[in-house]
Amino acid sequence: MGVSTHTARQGIQQRHRADWRGWKFMWPFALVFVFVFIVPIVYAIYISFFQKRMIGGTVFAGLANYQRLFADPNFWGSVGRVALFTIVQVPIMLALSALMALALDSMKLHGTKFFRIVTFLPYAVPAVVSTLIWGFMYGARYGLVASINSTFGLNLDVMAPNVLLASIGNIVTWEFVGYNMLIFYSALSTIPHSLYEAAAIDGATEWQIVRRIKMPELRGSLAVTVIFSIIGSFQLFNEPSVMKSMVPGNAISTYYTPNLYAYNLSFVGNQANYAAALAIVMAVITMAIAYAVQLRSMREQMK
Amino acid sequence: MSASQTMSIREQEKQARRREKERERRLHKDEAAERKRAAKSGFQNPQNPRRSTLLTVVCGIFALYCLFPFFYLLINATKTQSDFVSTFGLVGGHSFALWDNIVQVFTYQDGIFGRWFINTILYVVVGAGGATLLAIMGGYALAKFRFPGRKIVFAVIIGAISVPGIVLAVPQFLLFAKLGLTNTPWAMIIPSLISPFGLYLMWIFSDQAVPNELLEAARIDGAGEWRTFTTVSLPLLAPGIVTCSLFTIVATWNNYILPLIMIKDTNWYPLTIGLNNWKDQASTSGGTAIQNLVITGSLITIIPLVIAFLLLQRYWQSGLAAGAVKE
Fold first, then answer.
1. Domain count, chain A
2. Would you say A8 and A25 are in contact if contact means Cβ atoms under 8 Å apart?
3. How far is it, in rounded angstroms, from Cα A157 to Cα B62?
4. pTM value?
5. Which residues constitute the domain of residue B203?
6. Which of A57, A63, A119, A282 is 20 to 30 A from residue B117's alpha carbon, by CA?
7. Share of chain A above pLDDT 90, in %
C-alpha cells in the first residue's frame, strides 16, 4: 500500500512539473517562424486598417478597406474564378492520383518502378518552367498547337479566354498529380500484406480487397490531399502570372486570381493597405473552407 | 595505411552492392517463375499477382502525359530560334543546335545565367539546408516531448499552412524593406528556413522511427538530451531527413513568388525569375525573342533536380515507406 501511494504521488508530481526539454529543439524553428510568419501576419492586419491618402499621407481608416473590398466586383470575380477552378480541377487531379496509386500498389504493372518515378517526376519541375513549357506548347503562333494547326489545317486555340482556365488547370494537374499519387501510395503501403493474403484465402475478390481494405485506408490521406489542393488552388498565382505575357491580348487581367490581384495592388498599384485587407480576407476564406472540408482527421493524428 | 583501409572499405561496399544486385536479379527471376507456375495451376499469390498488360497500357498513356513536356523540351532545346518558330514542334529542326544553345545560354548578357545558377544553389544550400535542420529538431521535439505550449505550436503551424503565400509576401516585403534586407540573399534565405510541411513530415517520422525505450535507455546511461539526439536519434532519422531535404530543396529551387517580390537586382535572381525575365524580353518594346535560350535554360534548370530525384529515389521511397510502417 505504501508503495502504491508513493508511485501515485510521484505521478502527480511529474504531471505538475512542466517538461521544458522539448523547447531545446523547438526554439530555432519557433524563433524563425515568429519572424517570418507571425510578425508579418500581425503587421498585415495592422496596416489593413490604414489608407494612403493623396493629402495627409497614411491615415487610420477603420474598416474602410474591408468595406471597399466587399463591394469590389474584381475581387469577387477572382474568388469565383478560383472557386470554379477548385471545384473542377481538384477532383480530377485527385481521382487520377488515387487511380494511379491503386494501379501501382496492385503490383500488376510491368515495370512498377518505372511508373512510380515517371509520375512523380513533374513534381521536380519548377512551376515557372512547367508553365513555360506548357505555354510554349499552347502557343498558337509558334508552339505545338501552331504546328498542329498548320499541319492539319485546324484552328485550335487553347489560350482563348473561354478555355484558358482549363488550360491552366491542365498545367496544375500535370505538376501535382504525382505528388498526390505518392501520398496515396505511401498510405496504401502501410497496409500489412498479410491482410491481403488473409482476404484472398477467405475468397475475397480483387475488387472487394480494393473496396473494403484499400479505399478506407485512402480516406485518411484523402483529407490531407484535399486540404492541400484547395489551399493550393485558392492561392493560384505562379501559372497565370507566368502565362500573362504569353497569352494574346489581356486574357489574364491584373485581377485574374485573388493572389494576382493582391500582388498587382501592392507592387504595381502601390496600394499595400488594400492588398493587405484582401490577403487577410482570402486567408480567412481559405481557412474556413479547409476546416469545413476536414481538418479534423489531421488533428486526430495529433492526439 | 589509412588509404589502403579506405580502399578495402570501398571494395567491400562495391562487393556488397554487387551482391545486392545479384540477389535482386535472382528474386526477380524467382517471382517471374512463380507467376508462370501460378498461371498454370490457376492459383494466384496476392503478393505476386500476374502482370496485366491492359493495366500497363492504360498507365502507359498516363505516363506518356507525364513525360510529354520533357520530351517537347528536349526536342526544342536542339533548335535555333528561327527553327523553333518555323518547324513542327515534335521533330528536330534543320540543324542540331543544342551545344550552340547551351553556350549561348551561358554567355548571353555576360554570362548572367551562370550567376543565377550559383545564386539558386546558394539559396538551396543555406535555405533548404537550414529549413531541414529546423524541421528535424522541431519535429523531434513535437514527437518526443510533451512540453508546455506544444499544442499551440502545432495548431499555429497547421493554421500557417493555410495562409496564402501573398498574405505573407506583402508584409514580409514591407518588413524586410524596413530592415534593408530586400535585394540581398537574406530576403530569399530567411523565409525559406521555415517549412511547415517539413516539420509535419519529421514529426510523423520521429514519432515512428525513434522508439521511446531507446531514448530512456540513453538517458539512464547519463547522456544529455542533445547527445541523445545526435548519437541515438539522428541516425535513426536518416531516411526521413533525406525525404525532408528533398522536399525543402524542391520548394526552394522552385520558389517563384518570394524572389519575384523580394529581389529586383538581376544579379541576385534565382533561375526561375531569370528565365521568366528572358521570356518576357520578347514582349518589351525592341526586345528580341530568345525562346530558344529560355527553353535550353529551362532544360538546364530542371536537370539537377531530375538527377537528384533519380539518384535519391531509393532513399525517399524507403524514407516514405519506413515512415509509413507501423505495427
1. 1
2. no
3. 23
4. 0.84
5. 98-324
6. A119
7. 28
